[in-house]
Design brief:
- The protein has 586 residues and is α/β, with parallel strands linked by helices.
- The protein folds into 4 domains: 169 residues, Rossmann fold; 67 residues, no CATH class; 43 residues, no CATH class; 252 residues, Rossmann fold, CATH 3.40.50.300.
- The chain is 36% helix and 23% strand.
- The strands form 4 sheets. Strands 7-8-9-3-10-11 form a 6-stranded mixed β-sheet, with helices on both faces.
- Helix 17 packs across helix 18 and helix 18 crosses helix 19.
- It is globular, with a radius of gyration of 25 Å.
């Protein structure tokens, strides 16, 4: 796949430094002396955690940085022997989309919700290639067919909200390749997608690249993905390049401690260590750690005990059942014609049980009914049928004002940015539910409990007075977990609560959840599309497809010997460890 341009690389980023000017006049550096090449017809992966400078580097190539961004005079970005930083704005706009295009991370934020996908596809074709309206529409249908959109002739008139996440991302790819660019920048294009859709998108990008001889700059925080697609890897942290080289060589023998950490933080596919390594375990003597957040001491142990001990998972069969669902069902209805209605059955006859102190993992693609099950258990959506027994009593028939029952089952949602009130401090977020449920004798006691919970989830005491926007995504999720813990629940539902986080933050939260389960004996329902995470966390796994439970088994048994074809297809779509043996023993 790797190739070279006759007169050098297709894209050369040399000594790129970018800072942002704040309102107070302070310059905050985001990218520091970054240099790398992208050869023609190759795939280069830009890897690092949030805040590492990956996206700022990519946006610099397309001149899409905000007005307060400043580049150093030494910065150079050369594309096909042209210095992009010296081009006039009009020339950059001509180049953008036609020679260099970009797939953004969140398609619903990138697609205009008030225009059909056909209008948005044809707009670029008409502007850059001068096609007529009719020919642009015909070409748009061809592009949708090329990226694997089902029924492209009908879908072209659909609005973005009428498409699934994977279909929206296919539209973004079709828009990106419409003018046959020489360089495609893909910024986290598969982050929140199911494993099967993720695999389809990766295979699609690889096929398009080979067929069209494009170069691809692939941006991600997941090194496991990189091992399947990249020729070269550039690892970034704190705005600097920590390591770069041929992908297989970097995976076989990573030189930098941070690269080793990124590889090791992901839950392994072939073992279940008692604790996942975190970045601090590898960089404890690194002078660049700086102001990293402090976590409980248990997360800063040496690597030997972390990697040596195995955590036991599975059910013996004699555990106490704390929650049981029988024949759970949910239907939604929409009008069909003047007097009719159409039924959509999103959960069908789902039965399962949850044992005390154990974890039930629920997996399946988007639309399989996983989250709907969680919402029915929380009574945030009314069930259409079935019963849910909690300690022998039917949850679904209890009064909505039964506060004691609500307190004992809590949920951590996927998006911490949306689930925390932006007008409340972290302290207020924790104290409010305690006040509602009359936990604590007075305000002083509730404040003491809130501070204790912040400490429990590894956040400093001064977090009590900060607002959500002052925290990172991982820290916000810790606050959401702490809020649930103030209720002292018996059952905690985690609905994709670690899916979109950096691998190191994800490892910290998974370790935290295990510590809390060991200490409090809580039962978890752990919903995720990340099958490696579910295997690591779950004692028992339930697989859902199109609203139906197709398989339930102990985690090790299900992953080793899946019985249902759908389960086998899910497991076959999982990204594999680049080097499952060598990296973890480094």
């Amino acid at each position: 796949m790797t190739g070279a341009h006759p007169s050098g690389p297709l894209l050369r980023v040399h000594d790129l430094s970018v800072s942002f000017r704040t309102e107070s006049g302070t310059d905050v550096p985001a990218v520091r002396s970054v240099s790398f090449d992208v050869p023609a017809s190759s795939t280069v992966a830009l890897v690092g955690e949030s805040g590492s400078g990956k996206s700022v580097t990519a946006l610099s190539v397309l001149a899409l940085l905000p007005q307060n961004a400043q580049m150093s005079p030494e910065s150079r970005i050369v594309f096909r022997n042209r210095d992009l930083l010296s081009l006039a704005p009009r020339d950059i706009r001509t180049l953008r989309g036609r020679e260099i295009s970009m797939i953004f991370q969140e398609p619903m934020s990138s697609l205009n919700p008030v225009f059909t996908i056909g209008f948005q596809l044809t707009e670029g074709l008409r502007r850059h290639l001068g096609l007529t309206r009719r020919s642009a529409r015909a070409r748009a249908i061809e592009l949708l067919d090329e990226v694997g959109m089902p029924e492209p002739g009908a879908r072209i008139d659909a609005y973005p909200f009428e498409l699934s996440g994977g279909q929206q991302q296919r539209v973004m790819i079709a828009m990106a390749i419409a003018c046959e660019p020489a360089l495609l920048i893909a910024d986290e294009p598969t982050t929140a997608l199911d494993v099967t859709v993720q695999k389809q998108i990766l295979e699609l990008i690889a096929a398009l690249q080979q067929r069209r001889q494009m170069a691809v700059l692939f941006i991600t925080h997941d090194l496991r993905l990189v091992g399947e697609i990249a020729d070269r890897v550039v690892v970034m942290r704190d705005g600097r390049v920590r390591e770069q080289g041929v992908a297989r060589e970097v995976f076989a023998a990573p030189h930098d401690a941070y690269t080793r950490a990124l590889l090791a933080c992901r839950p392994p596919l072939h073992s279940r260590p008692s604790r996942l390594p975190v970045i601090a375990d590898f960089l404890s003597h690194d002078s660049e750690i700086g102001d990293r957040p402090q976590f409980p001491q248990s997360e800063n142990r040496g690597l030997s005990p972390i990697l040596g001990a195995e955590r036991s998972r599975g059910l013996r069969g004699d555990e106490t059942v704390v929650l049981e669902a029988r024949h759970l069902a949910k239907s939604f209805y929409r009008r069909a014609g003047l007097f009719g209605k159409h039924e959509s059955r999103v959960v069908r006859d789902a039965s399962f049980s949850l044992s005390k102190g154990k974890t039930l993992g629920i997996v399946g693609e988007s639309g399989s009914g996983k989250t709907t099950v969680a919402l029915m258990l929380m009574r945030l959506q009314a069930a259409s049928g079935g019963v849910v027994l909690f300690e022998g009593k039917d949850l679904l028939s209890r009064h909505d004002r039964d506060l004691a029952l609500k307190r004992r089952i809590q949920i951590v949602f996927q998006n911490p940015y949306a689930s925390l009130n932006p007008r409340f401090t972290a302290g207020q977020i924790l104290i409010e539910p305690m006040h509602i449920h009359r936990i604590g004798a007075n305000a002083g006691e509730r404040e003491t409990l809130a501070l204790a919970m912040l400490d429990k989830v590894g956040l400093p005491r001064d977090s009590f007075f900060k607002y959500p926007h002052e925290f990172s995504g991982g820290q916000r999720q810790r606050i959401a977990i702490a809020r649930c813990l103030t209720m002292r629940p018996d059952v905690l539902i985690c609905d994709e609560s670690v899916s979109a986080l950096d691998v190191s933050v994800q490892a910290q939260l998974l370790n935290l959840l295990q510590d809390l389960q060991d200490e409090y004996g809580m039962s978890y329902i752990f919903i995720s599309h990340d099958l490696a995470v579910v295997r690591y966390m779950a004692d028992e796994v339930m697989v859902m497809n199109a609203g139906e439970v197709v398989e339930i088994a102990n985690a090790d048994e299900l992953y080793a010997n899946p019985r249902h074809p759908y389960t086998r297809n899910l497991l076959a779509s999982m990204p594999r460890d680049p080097d499952p043996a060598g990296v973890r023993s480094a």
